[in-house]
Amino acid sequence: MKNEGVDLHIHSIYSDGTFFPKEILNLALKKGLKFFSITDHNCIGFYFRYPRFIPGIEISIEDIFNEKPVKGLEILGYGFDTTKMKDKIKPFQKNKMDNIKKCIDNFNKFDFQSNLFSLKSFKEAKIRDFFEFRCKRKLSEQEFRDLLENSAPTKIDLAEFLYSKFFDFNPETWKIHGNLPFLFKREFSDTIFRTEESKKMTFRDAIGLVKESEGTAVLAHPAMCNLFAKKWFKQKSEGVDPFEFIKNLKENYGLDGVELYNYGGVLKYSKPSVELINLYFKDVSKRLNLVNTFGSDCHGDKWWGFQLGSFNSDIKEIQKFLNYVYKNT
Hints:
By secondary structure, this protein is an alpha/beta fold. It folds into two domains: 6-89 and 202-325, TIM Barrel (Alpha-Beta Barrel); 90-187, no CATH class. 41% of the residues lie in helices and 13% in strands. It has helices spanning 21-30, 82-109, 127-135, 141-150, 155-166, 171-177, 180-187, 203-212, 242-253, 263-266, 271-288, 319-325; strands at residues 6-10, 35-38, 56-60, 63-65, 68-70, 74-78, 118-119, 167-168, 216-219, 257-261, 291-295. The strands form four sheets. A five-stranded mixed β-sheet has the order 3-6-9-10-11. α5 packs across α7. It is globular. Residues 119-124 have low confidence and may be disordered.
């Protein structure tokens, strides 16, 4: 299916993207998107007063279903009262920032002993350095204050900054070990990255937070769930039934919708597989009377397969969602 006009899953510099919000706005206008949303992780870094912009957020989840941990799923919130959402998400952001600051303190005190990395230089790592390096440009004082107030960086973000800025590594390391930020975090998990465990939200917490903020709660990238066997999207097989899982989220917690997603960019699925998966979840949504959203999961120009507007929908395909979002306006 060809979809044009909407992208409701975009990340900016305020979480783990490389675009500033105004760059996203300019790209959305250039591509002719009729509606778009910035859905940064666990924070609202920026809010446009623009008719076709829908305020959004993507909330991290840590939960259990049928006595098994759930991985790969998050909750997208849309159309909420931004003041209420910022107040409710702030304690979660503070916990993450406290842990990042603790990691930096650990790094500055650490006596490095590793056979994977050789120390190149050492100086105090500051939060400001971290963000300046990530976005490859200078930040204004106001932008810096906004980042500290609104952002929610992760330990993986910090790992990417630290290994890139302070260490030399053999190019062969990438071929052998793959993702270097994850490798770095794993190598120093008991030293640099040792902090008090951050409490993530459950589905009840996250959906409740969105609803209490007068927003619409949508399940992000459902096919990425570790509990769903891939064969479910063609025929029933062993594993958790996605329909029953999503039905539980709706009936017990008030889930409003399901995202149709850019699996071709994220997981390199073939176009027929992407079509099949999204048709499956469209059918689940119809059976449960849930709304649908479409999103590219754009993280900026340095990420393959995540380009803004690369996977979206015609307005008529999200009309039910728009009715939810604008029901009180």
